[in-house]
Amino acid sequence: MSHQSLIKSAVLDELFRICCFLIFYIILIGLGAAILVGAFWASFHLIFDILPEVGNIRAMIFIVMVVIGICLLALMLGIYLIKPLFSFRKNTKATRVEVSESECPALFAMIKTLANNTKCQMPKHVYLSPDVNACVFYNTSFWSIFFPVRKNLEIGLGLFDGTSVDEVKSIIAHEFGHFSQNSMKIGSTVYVTNTVLYNLILTDDFWDKWLDKWCMMDTAIIRYFGIMTRGLTNLIKRLTVCVYHFVQKGYLKLSRYMEYDADNIACQCVGTDTFISALCKVEVLANKDNLYQRMLKSLINEQKMVANYFVGKDIVSKYIHNKEIPQFSFDYELKEPVRTYKVKSRVRVKNVWASHPSLEDRIMNARTIASLPSKTKSESSWILIPKEVSEKVSALFTSIIRNNVKDTLTYISDEQFAEWASNEVKENFMDERLRPFFGNHIFEFDLEQSVVVPLESPFTEENALKIAEFITGIEDWQLLNQVKNKEVDAKEVQLDGIVYKRNNIPFEKFRIELDIMHEKVVRIYSDIYAYVCSKCDEKKNLAYRNSFAALFYAQHIGDTLLPQLFAHRENLLKELNKATRRDEDEYKQLCSWVMDYEQHLKKVIAEINLDWVAAVINTEEYIMKLKEYLKSNHNSNFSIDTAAINEMFQITETLSDIQGAIYGMSRHTICDITTSVLDNN
User: Fold this and answer.
1) The pLDDT value given to residue 225
2) Mean of the pLDDT values across residues 510-535?
3) What share of the chain is helix, strand, coil (3-state, %, to 5)?
4) Is the CB of residue 458 less than 8 Å from the CB of residue 468?
5) What Cα–Cα distance (Å) separates residue 57 from each residue in 42, 66, 627?
6) Please, which residues bridge with residue 495 across strands?
7) How far apart are CA 74 and CA 36, in angstroms?
8) What is the DSSP letter of 580?
9) Backbone phi and psi for residue 590, each to the nearest 5 degrees, phi listed first
10) Sheet strand arrangement including 126-129
11) Tell me, what DSSP letter sits at residue 404?
């Protein structure tokens, strides 16, 4: 089947799913109308037939309360079902800056050329943002299902770092590919359908606030009708979730085909090589942006801010480049994704919930396209954006950051930021030689085991690849188990090119292979430890050993103790945040849950060697508080103390901070000692 045939088939399938949704929604509206009519009839009967016959004042009040409860139930349920019809969803983002043709003539000239080449309308609005992204978006209401709306275009200036005009053009051409697709004509329809379903399932708006107040009213009879309304809506939500998944699964399949189709259009506009280079550069730029954001957080913590966001990123790029984030310029094309010590997964699962194909699959598809040859001469993409416009985007973004920070931030000069960035990288960024070995989880080995000191440095590419292979193996193992436990929507998997049904996955064979890889990796770390120790004096040897011991202990806390505690906390928070009026038994149950969490917290604290922690990271004040906490109960089975609950959660966060401090400090020492050895040999 051809690609266009696949798209057509996916479109028809999705239209069928949308029709099913409309039938489902009409039935819900009908149900709401029936309940409204029934409520009116019941209220009429109670008031005019039964109430006059009742002589007891209490019974009369009871009937009046029931009538009010019935009317409120019908009214609230009706509002719940029809409010998506009148909802308007405006796709807003604070960091977007709308630009006009007069502000960016070169950019708009490119956009017009692409619109003509792809035979589609110009976007209604064009926006710039600091992101490493470009996208199509639109504002919608329910009636957009029947009356599609015009699209808007957002272009992230993060895409312009080290890219050519043609590479940016290819990214925008991809988005215009979506504009031009016949399949995209139902894009707003699907989007609105998902919005309606989302509003029925997840939104927290005026209706939810009214219902919360209703469920907490003092009048018991009316309150019970509120609880009944919540029960009915929860039932509707459970049914709607199934419909949502049904519609969404079809659209995501269509979306994946549409991505390939848009890629084809981009290749036709600028050439396959240029488009592939753009795809590969975007991945690198996204990684660079993440590192830059981390550095800005550190800068903000010092109550400082870079004057120009994009100038700051350019400065940082001089210091953070490495094998995974290489320096490249607009006149250099990447031929393939940047992968350093990354091992390809042995497991492939058809992900029905993915909206985009993988980068590798998109590149493979692009190479099959017969397109125009890429241009040999290009220019920096920044010529499309006047300096004053980029400064405008930067000023908006930095102002948002400043407004979201409690402390006053001081702008620093480019020279000051360059000096700060250089020191930040030296202090807090790992040496590239160590990243394959200490950049992820450090696998525990026996510190007491005597090992023959390797004659050559174990920091080899071969060993780095073995560690990467094992890490990928662990990820594959987790994915296979997710398929087995039906946590991933897949009936079969492909392992080493062989397709297995969910119940026939060769777990035992895979586990044996994983154990063999684990032994090799543990031996590598043991060799690293022995090699570095052989090059150090006694004082550094002791520090190196103690740092590994501390790191392994921190990993134990982080891997085994804290995840269960945090999961327990999240479940308790959900119960505490429920807006409902609890009777005596429900309140006792809640008290019991709070007590359970307190006991769990104490158990975790008791399992941690507090005296050792105090000695390692010099947190005696914290440790004293934890010891005092263990001595008494702070909650009871009969009452809940809000202050005591807040204290529990604060202590939970403190434990996480302590674990992070031990891990960070010990790994920092390990890296410092290892780097000094490598520098001297």
Assistant:
1) 78
2) 95
3) 70, 5, 25
4) no
5) 20, 14, 61
6) 347, 498
7) 5
8) -
9) -65, -40
10) 97-98, 126-129, 152-156, 134-137
11) T
Helix (H, G, I), strand (E, B) or coil at 45: helix
Task: Report how far residue 17's alpha carbon sits from residue 251's, in angstroms, rounded to the nearest whole number.
Answer: 9
Instruction: Please name every residue paired with 498 in a beta bridge, in sequence order, or none if there are none.
Output: 495
Q: How many C-beta atoms surround the C-beta of residue 12 within 10 A?
A: 12
Segment among 12-26, 57-71, 140-154, 341-355 with least mean pLDDT: 140-154
| Count helices and strands in the chain by DSSP H and E runs | 21, 11
Domain boundaries, the chain: 3-86+198-235, 430-533, 546-679
Please give the Cα distance from 347 to 343 (Å, whole number). 12
Residues paired with 135 in a beta bridge: 154
Measured CA distances, 191 to 13, 33, 125, 237 (Å):
16, 26, 19, 19
Q: How far apart are CA 65 and CA 207, in angstroms?
A: 21
List Cα–Cα distances, 482 to 486, 493, 553, 602, in angstroms: 6, 11, 28, 32
Cβ atoms of 356 and 260 closer than 8 Å: no
Secondary element (H or E) of residue 337: none
Among residues 477, 480, 487, 473, which one has the least CA distance to residue 501? 480
What confidence score (pLDDT) does residue 147 get?
Answer: 58
How far is 192 from 320, CA to CA, in rounded Å? 42
| pLDDT-based confidence at residue 613 (cuts at 50, 70, 90) | confident
Residue 155 buriedness (CB in 10 A; 0-12 / 13-18 / 19+):
buried
Q: At what angle do helices 3-45 and 187-201 cross, to 10 degrees?
A: 40
CB 634 within 8 A of CB 641: yes
The Cβ of residue 455 has, within 10 Å, a number of other Cβ atoms equal to 7
Task: Please state, in angstroms and as integers, the Cα–Cα distance from residue 524 to each residue in 274, 453, 459, 519, 674, following that order.
Answer: 41, 11, 9, 9, 14
Residues 43 and 71: their CA atoms lie apart, in Å, by: 7
Indicate the burial class of 612 (C-beta count within 10 angstroms; 0-12, 13-18, 19 or more): middle
- Helix (H/G/I), strand (E/B), else coil: 366: helix
DSSP class of residue 372 equals P
The widest CA-to-CA distance across the chain, in whole angstroms, is: 103
The radius of gyration computed from the CA coordinates of the chain, to the nearest angstrom, equals: 31
C-beta separation of 442 from 667 below 8 A: yes
Backbone phi, psi, residue 574, to 5°: -60, -40
What are the b/e assignments for 214-225, b being 16+ CB within 10 Å? bbeeeeeebbeb
The answer to whether residues 532 and 433 touch, using CB atoms and an 8 Å cutoff, is no
* Burial class of residue 403, CB neighbours in 10 A (0-12, 13-18, 19+): exposed
Of the candidate ranges 167-181, 276-290, 532-546, the one whose mean pLDDT is the lowest: 167-181
CA distance 362 to 386: 32
Instruction: Give the integer Cα–Cα distance in Å for 359 and 374.
Output: 20
The pLDDT value given to residue 282: 92
Fill in the amino acid letter for 411.
Y
Residue keyed to tokens 């001595």: 631
Average pLDDT, the chain: 83
- Cα angle 581, 582, 586 (rounded to 5 degrees) comes to 160
Residues 6 or more apart from 31 whose CB is under 8 A from it?
81
Residue 542 CB neighbour total at 10 angstroms: 12
Distance in angstroms (rounded) separating the CA atoms of residues 251 and 476: 27
Closest listed residue to residue 543, CA positions, set 678, 680, 673, 675: 673
pLDDT tens by residue, 162-183: 999 999 999 999 988 876 655 4
Cβ 367 vs Cβ 272: under 8 Å: yes
The answer to whether 601 and 651 have CB atoms below 8 angstroms apart is yes
Sign of the Cα torsion 215, 220, 225, 228 reads: positive
